[in-house]
Amino acid sequence: MDVFCIGLWGKLQKSYIDVRIFHPGAPSYLPKAIKPLYREQEAQKKRAYAKRVIEIEKGSFSPFVLSTSGGTGEECGRVMRTLASKIADRHGNTYRETIEHIRLRLRFALLRVVVRCKTLLTEGELQRMAILRVCLVSLRGSRTKIKYTPISNIDINLL
Which of 88, 96, 111, 119 is 20–30 Å from 129 (CA)? Predict the structure, then answer.
């Protein structure tokens, strides 16, 4: 689990949040619509962690699913709305200002991650990774030619 907090959903209730970021432009996701992708990612997280959190940890579990295109899953939106209303009430701000601030901070955090990943990998490493992926796909017997997007072409919507 990535985040643990107390009091998000109820007074003194433990809450566990696990974050997943996926790229909807990946070859395996291209034929699918975006909404089912979010639901699928959330369901995978719930299958992996929800039972353990509820039975052993005696808490609640929320998957926090984000995409590299800037979208969020249903549970992620619910967590952000709840968090924004609690912060707004506590600090005397409006809900609108608070949710905008949370979304902006989240976008810049995602942008930092992408920039950090991009600077860690050189172009040669990226090309080797692409060649390795093509080799693995051909070993599996894929009949379709896969187009890979260079990481330098990937963009994140900030607004």
Answer: 111
For the record, the structure tokens of 24 come out as 């909807």
Per-residue pLDDT of the chain (159 residues; tens, 9 = 90+): 678 888 888 888 888 888 888 888 888 888 888 898 999 999 999 998 888 888 888 888 999 888 877 788 899 889 999 988 988 988 888 999 999 988 888 888 777 776 766 666 555 555 555 544 443 343 344 444 444 444 444 444 443
3-state per-residue secondary structure call for 76-138:
HHHHHHHHHHHHHHHHCCCHHHHHHHHHHHHHHHHHHHHHHHHHHCCHHHHHHHHHHHHHHHH
Token couple for 104: 């902006």
HSE of 150 in the Cβ direction (CA atoms, 13 Å)?
Answer: 7
